[in-house]
Design goal:
alpha+beta, N-terminal domain of TfIIb, three-stranded antiparallel beta sheet, two-stranded antiparallel ribbon, 21% strand, extended, binds iron/sulfur cluster
C-alpha cells in the first residue's frame, strides 16, 4: 500500500504545531500523525496533535454536528429534544440562575475553546462568568 505524507498545521489550538500526516491515498484515510519540525513545536506534538485527528476520517465519530439546540426537557437521563434558540437561551439562563441561587456563583464554571470561536468569543465568555455569574471559575480547553 503506497503511503502519502502530507505536512500541515494542527488545527486544535493557536500554537501552530506542524504535523506530518501519513495517509492511505487509495482509501482516502489518514493512518498516523507524527510531529514535523515546525517553528513552534520542534519535532513534538501534544496528545491532541498526536491522536485527536480521527474525526477527519469519520466526522460522526464523536457526535453528530449540532444544527439546532437540544434540551433534555425530561431532566437528567431523558432524551435530547430539539429546541429553538430562544427556548434554549431562556432554559439555560433559568437553570444557571437556579444553581447560582441555591449553591452560589462559585458552583458554576465557564470554559473557553481554543478551536473555532476566536479571541473575542473567549473574551465574552470570561466576561459573562465574572460579570453575569460572579465567579472567577474560568478555564480553557488547552489545559488538557
Ligand atoms: S493542539 Fe497540541 S499539537 Fe496541536 S497546535 Fe496545539 S499544542 Fe500543537
Amino acid at each position: 500500500m503506497p503511503i502519502k505524507e502530507v505536512q500541515t498545521t494542527c488545527a486544535y489550538c493557536g500554537a501552530g504545531c506542524q504535523i506530518l500526516f501519513k495517509a492511505d491515498p487509495e482509501n482516502n484515510k489518514i493512518l498516523e500523525a507524527v510531529p514535523a519540525k515546525g517553528r513552534t513545536n520542534d519535532g513534538t506534538l501534544c496528545l491532541k496533535g498526536h491522536y485527536g485527528w480521527d474525526y477527519i476520517n469519520d466526522p460522526q465519530i464523536l457526535t453528530k454536528r449540532l444544527k439546532k439546540p437540544l434540551i433534555r426537557r425530561g431532566g437528567k437521563g431523558a432524551p435530547l429534544e430539539e429546541a429553538t434558540w430562544d427556548e434554549a437561551i431562556s432554559y439555560t439562563a433559568g437553570r444557571l440562575s437556579e444553581i447560582k441561587k441555591k449553591y452560589g456563583p462559585d458552583s458554576i464554571m465557564c470554559t473557553g475553546s481554543a478551536r473555532g470561536p476566536g479571541n473575542e468569543a473567549n473574551y465574552v465568555m470570561q466576561k459573562f462568568a465574572r460579570a453575569a455569574i460572579g465567579t472567577n471559575n474560568v478555564d480553557h480547553c488547552a489545559r488538557i
